[in-house]
Each structure stands twice: as structure tokens, then as C-alpha cells.
């Protein structure tokens, strides 16, 4: 079968990519952590306590436009679907920051949203999904984080159901450090492969889903899921068994669904 031949060729290319990925510069033990007080997905540093961990985390506890949310009940609207102009990213870093696997890209393209351009900065993963539909989680969600010149963020979420494997995920997983650290990306990442063919999407105004939970995010969550294989999902969940913030109240917001 063509598919399996291609898959095995892909796997040997991936093995090469993994062998040539240079491990660089794990953080020194005395390096200041990303956040002064440790936040986590459970226990004393868990989501219920994020607001108390640092003064700037106020919105985590008292914000009214927090993310993620359940996307059920979205209203169909004849609004323009988001238009990602992503391009294959060459180079960059795969980072295990102890909260997720994040891929920093340069020249990964941009997103056009309501007449504003946002440059793609990084993407990262959550297991299970942070956004839910009718209360249902998906096994994986990817967030593509874009920033405009004025500091606004536009994040595109793509949900993953279990199914066919995604070749880009293998390359990223193979490169990702198993503990906190970074590794150089030694392969091209075809970002377009992460985008569903159908561009229907949910849109709403929300926040970062990690401290400090800033309410500066224009959210787009693609309505059609992509797929990742059971072993790809298992490989991520072995590193991060649960890195999803619970869904937040919608409050006085609307979720819109683009109609094509
Ligand atoms: Zn995220």
C-alpha cells in the first residue's frame, strides 16, 4: 500500500531528524524559573489557586472573560472565517517548559483576523483538550499563538481526535526533551498539515489559559478536529498526563461559529 510505504519512508526521515536534532542548553539549576512561584495543573499550585500565586495573576481568579470554555451553544454568524497564511517553518526550537511541549517558530507565517495581521510565534499542546464541545474533551489540542504589533494575541486552537497519525507530531515528539530543556528543530514543519480542510471555526473573546490569564486573546477554535494516532497521544500524555485548565464560565459573552 502506498500509505504504508510512505509511512515507513517518513519514519526513517524522522529517525534521522531525531538523530541530528542537537540538544542545547538545558536551564541551569540556579536559573530563575519562568514564573516566580510554581504553578501547576493540580495540588497547591493548581488552577483553583493560580490567582493567589502572584499579583499579576488576578484575572485567573476574578476575570470575566476567561478561557477555555465549552463551545456548545455557539451562534451561527456570517462572519469572515479566520485566514491563516502559515508556511512551512524551518528551524526553531522545541521546548519542554515543564507545562507543555512548545515549538517556537520564526517565519511561520501569519493569521489575518478582522483586518489585522498577527505573526505566528509558537504553538504548544494540551492533553486533554482545554476547549470542550457539549462537555466532551478531545484527547489533544494544539494552540497556535499569534501576536500583533500592539500586543493583542490571536490564538488558533485545533482539536485532535484519535485516528490517523500526524507526521509532524512524530518529528516534534522525537525532538522534544523528556525533561525541562530545549532542542533545535532540524526538520521542516508543514504547519498547513495541522489545519483541517474545513475552515469552520468557533470564535470568542477570552484569555490565556495559563497564568497570568490575561484577557487579551481573540480565540479561534477550528470546528473540525484533526487526528493523531493513539501512540502519538500516549507519547504526549506520558510526559504531560493532564495539562488542561478546567473550562471557565461564559458569563456575558457569545460564541460565534463562522459559516464556511
Ligand atoms: Zn495553550
Give an overview in words.
- By secondary structure, this protein is α+β, with helices and mostly antiparallel strands.
- The protein has a single domain (2-26, 61-258), classed as Roll (Carbonic Anhydrase II).
- It contains five helices and 16 strands.
- The chain has helices spanning 2-20, 50-53, 58-62, 167-175, 230-239, and strands at 23-24, 75-77, 83-86, 89-90, 93-96, 101-104, 109-113, 116-126, 140-147, 153-162, 181-184, 188-189, 201-206, 217-222, 226-228, 256-258.
- The strands form two sheets. Strands 1, 2, 3, 5, 6, 7, 8, 9, 10, 11, 13, 14, 15 and 16 form a 14-stranded mixed beta sheet that branches. The chain has a two-stranded antiparallel ribbon with strand order 4-12.
- Helix 1 runs parallel beside helix 4.
- The longest helix has 19 residues, at 2-20.
- The radius of gyration is 18 Å and the shape is globular.
- The model is unreliable at 1-33 (pLDDT under 50).
- Residues 124, 126, 143, 209 line the site of zinc ion.
- Zinc ion is lined by residues 124, 126, 143, 209.
